[in-house]
Design goal:
Length: 327
């Protein structure tokens, strides 16, 4: 738990924001009270960027909210979709194009994640091509089962455990020894909650290499909160240093704040959208060369936020896949 932190939820919805001290008190005393339906606004204010360091505790409070008999609109429908289709998206047909070179069988799985294959296919295709160009051998599942993070964030633990069991059985049957993820949430879940499987989990940025030629241009990097605020603490500095080394002018004046994506656009969408619009204001910079200004990210949810809300806010930075900037 951090004493000082930057929380976008507190910024856009201060009335319903639970400070860390309040979260700590609720956790310690949770057997002494029951949550009421009106507590939904406070408990689901959080989008789990984990800048506060209390994301796990907030999960526990959400679980208690449901155990106390309260409801979330649309939750039962989401549970049905996950059990029937293995994804929170009812129409789970992958929009990622077939790319030559992907192995039919491998002990390394490139796990794309629900959001990538449905919402941000170009983001996924760019990563696939980059890994292949760097001689990384992997296979891709025809149909993935959700890692479970979206339902975990609601507090519905039974369905989450059901998805974990299905995935573990699948991974074991395929003989996977390593999983490369392209989504921070998937990486976080596999590292923390699939640890007994003895499968090594990597994030795709571990495969980044220095390109042969120098690059140029102004660059904003939207960082992945679950990684920089928890699972891979040095990732933001390491990635910025890499892009600086190859010639990009990484704009350090832009704060490393959450974009509002991830679980944000699954529950209280008004919180997510308010954060996203506020975040776009950080990117409204006037620079001399408007044709050489780029914005990128290593998170599929952030990529979608930048695409949708960047266009809405008319920011002057071209959204480009992170791997394409290394070619």
């Amino acid at each position: 738990m951090k004493e000082e932190y930057t929380c976008p939820c507190r910024e856009v919805d201060p009335i319903n924001f639970l400070e860390n001290e309040e979260v700590d008190w609720l956790i310690k005393n949770r057997k002494k009270f029951k949550f009421q339906q009106e507590d939904y606004l406070k408990l689901y204010n959080c989008i789990h960027c984990n800048d506060c360091g209390t994301s796990e505790q907030r999960f526990i409070l959400k679980q208690k909210f449901l155990k106390d008999g309260n409801k979330i609109e649309g939750l039962n429908h989401t549970i049905e979709k996950l059990k029937k289709y293995g994804t929170p998206f009812q129409y789970n047909k992958s929009r990622i194009k077939h790319i030559e070179g992907v192995s039919e069988e491998s002990n390394t799985l490139l796990y794309l994640g629900c959001f990538t294959i449905v919402k941000t296919p170009r983001y996924g295709e760019s990563i696939i091509k980059y890994l292949l160009q760097n001689n990384v051998k992997f296979c891709i599942l025809e149909e993935e089962i959700c890692c479970g993070y979206p339902i975990l964030c609601t507090g519905e633990l039974d369905t989450y455990n059901h998805l974990v069991e299905r995935n573990l059985e699948l991974f074991k049957s395929k003989g996977f020894e390593e999983i490369i993820t392209v989504c921070p949430s998937c990486y976080m879940v596999f590292k923390k909650h699939y640890s007994n499987s003895n499968i090594k989990v990597k994030y795709f940025t571990e495969y980044f290499k220095l390109p042969k030629s120098k690059k140029s241009g102004n660059l904003i990097i939207q960082h992945a909160c679950p990684l920089k605020n928890g699972e891979i603490p040095n990732i933001a500095d390491d990635i910025e240093d890499l892009y600086k080394t190859i010639g990009y002018n990484v704009l350090n004046s832009v704060p490393r704040n959450c974009c509002g994506g991830g679980v944000g656009h699954q529950l209280r969408t008004e919180i997510s959208e308010a954060i996203a619009l506020k975040r776009m204001e950080d990117f409204k910079l006037k620079l001399p060369n408007e044709n050489n200004n780029y914005i990128t990210t290593y998170c599929p949810d952030a990529y979608w936020i930048l695409k949708v809300f960047g266009r809405r806010a008319k920011i002057d930075f071209k959204l480009i896949n992170m791997c394409d900037l290394l070619k």
